[in-house]
Amino acid sequence: MFEGRPRDSCLVSTLFTMPTHQETKWSFSISAKRAFLNNEDETDPHRRKKIHKLAEFSNLDGGGGDGGDGSSDSGSLIPGMNKDDSISCLLRCSRADYCPIASVSRSLRALVRSGEIYRLRRLQGTLEHWVYFSCHLNEWEAFDPRSKRWMRLPSMPQNECFRYADKESLAVGTDLLVFGWEVSSYVIYRYSLLTNSWSTGKSMNMPRCLFGSASYGEIAVLAGGCDSNGRILDTAEMFNSEDQTWSVLPAMNKRRKMCSGVFMDGKFYVIGGIGVGEGNEPKVLTCGEEFDMKTRVWREIPDMSPPRSNQGNGMSAAAMAPPLVAVVNDQLYAADHAGMAVRRYDKESRVWVQVGSLPEQAGSMNGWGLAFRACGDQVIVIGGPKAPGEGFIELNSWVPSHGAPQWHLLGKKQSVNFVYNCTVMSC
């Protein structure tokens, strides 16, 4: 959850995979592009074939207007092809290929770094969903479910606002936003996929923590939370990653913090949390609210918060994590960490129906440290049991359209910490 702005060399100039049995080094520079294309560790034959083909089209050996740094200055995307066909070819590549592609020529580098290629991917529906998570205060990693690769992001700079792990994060467009709060000090750090660097993000109109949030394409909505005085908020804001701006939305019907947010059916929903009861006392909320993006009106929905197996056992609501929810194909699912159950929300009858169980290794501490996220057409669960001084986390996936939960192990790595933060970037 931090930032910094390393020297601008290549898109992923310092990105490395984690040490696993599939260890693959992702260190690129313009002068080393040929070494990448011949890297024997790149075992995916289809991926290598696409990159080699692009290299041939772009006269990688220096023909066609080579610049002093070895990159083509021809001005075209792929020599011998018109722009539309060139872009069509690029859209078929994995987003992991865009770093070496960007090193081929200045025109390709400009296309990738402008973010235009990702906007076109979104319009075409060619999205890849990578999981970004943090198990350490200053460190973030990414996991590509398709290639099963672990990747390390640059370290975030030190900041007092990030002394503790319970900070919010959100992926929107090609940005990863991490929100830090310390007493009255507040900061947002922004990681850009386009530059592989951290920078200070634009502050909200009303800084807050413990809010509910979700992203949809290049926009995100944040609702509720509390301010520096601990006052629970009913306000909401929308972030546009295209122009890096925040805009104020109409207020919700209820004040709430420690809530969760999702997009479903083109609308934003805020679910559960802690509100304000009689005498200004904290009150557990079971309702949700729906925000229509077209009419800009909030509508309260009773009993939308998923039930929890340990409700009523005297545990403070503040000790439990916000509702663990995820939306796949416009269906809302929830994880009950205490009962190790998975539930689906029936939108017609407005009731929660149990559909199966969580993975056996989905350990948590009152829900903290367990990530339950939508990842394309899958639900991803990240967690794991802990032992003194050692432990591991697991990434398990389930495709709801295939029936009741059948969890498949995607990846596993050593970790002495829980998952502090987790989000999914779709681009």
Taking the alpha carbons of the first and last residues, their distance comes to: 20 Å
* Major sheet details: 5 strands, antiparallel
Class of secondary structure makeup: mainly beta
**Average pLDDT taken over every residue:** 81
Content of β-strand: 35-45%
Overall geometric form: globular
The neighbouring-strand order within the major sheet is 1-4-3-2-28
Overall strand count: 28
Helix content: 10-25%
Q: Taking Cα atoms only, what radius of gyration do you get, to the nearest Å?
A: 22 Å
Number of helices: 6
Low-pLDDT segments, ≥5 res: 1-43, 50-75
Protein name: F-box/kelch-repeat protein At1g26930
Pfam family, one: Kelch_1
InterPro entries: F-box/Kelch-repeat, Kelch-typ_b-propeller, Kelch_1
Keywords: Kelch repeat, Repeat
Q: What can you see in these coordinates?
A:
With 427 residues, the protein is mainly β. The chain has six helices and 28 strands. It has helices at residues 33-37, 45-57, 83-91, 98-102, 106-113, 116-124, and strands at residues 16-17, 129-136, 139-144, 149-152, 168-172, 175-182, 185-192, 197-200, 212-216, 219-223, 236-240, 245-249, 260-264, 267-271, 274-276, 282-284, 288-292, 297-301, 324-328, 331-336, 341-346, 351-357, 371-375, 378-383, 386-387, 390-398, 408-414, 421-426. Strands 1-4-3-2-28 form a five-stranded antiparallel sheet, with no helix packed on it. The longest helix is centred in the N-terminal third of the chain and has 13 residues, at 45-57. The chain starts with 15 loop residues before the first strand and ends with a strand. The relative contact order is 0.11. Residues 1-43 and 50-75 have low confidence and may be disordered. It comes from Raphanus sativus (Radish). This is F-box/kelch-repeat protein At1g26930. Residues 61-70 have a biased composition (Gly residues). Pfam families: Kelch_1. Keywords: Kelch repeat, Repeat.
